[in-house]
Amino acid sequence: MQKQWKNLNVDLKLLAETIQNAYTQKRGLRTKQKTTKNRWQIRIILSDPRTPGAMNVIITGAPNNFTIETKATEIEDDAIKMGLSTAFFGGGYIIYSSVKTREELEKLEKEFWATIEETIARHANTATKAAKKF
């Protein structure tokens, strides 16, 4: 899923850090952040070893025109297809594990989109404040 915001003047580095902290501190999940120019990628890793999976949150753009995209279930869809093609050779476990992981990732993604508007609203006009500090 992808959504774009305009004219909010959001400090995107601060937004990425807030998202990362929300999942590591409040939810006890592991995260990894990779940053390049005008792009922040946060990988949120599910903590249950029975449902290994991760959701990527990608923030791109500038403070007044940015996009947030989540990618969560594509890998599990491929694993389910592989499990179906190998069902006679133990693929049933792959299907079961992938379906459970997909359910957890869908739940995580739904929760993310339900809270991101509020998070962005709290960060409106922070880019100007951050620029004045330097």
Structure summarized in a few sentences:
The protein has helices at residues 12-26, 74-85, 91-122, 126-133; strands at residues 2-6, 30-36, 39-45, 54-62, 65-71. With 134 residues, the protein is an alpha+beta fold. The longest helix is centred in the C-terminal third of the chain and has 32 residues, at 91-122.
Helicity level, as a percent range? 40-55%
Task: Identify low-pLDDT runs.
Answer: none
Helices, by number, come to 4
Output mean pLDDT: 81
Series of secondary-structure elements, N-terminal to C-terminal: EHEEEEHHH
Structural class: alpha+beta
Distance between the amino and carboxyl termini: 35 Å
Compute the number of structural domains: 1
Sheet having the most strands = 5 strands, antiparallel
Tell me the overall shape: elongated
How many strands appear in the DSSP assignment? 5
Q: How do the strands line up in the largest sheet?
A: 1-5-4-3-2
The gyration radius over C-alpha positions equals 17 Å
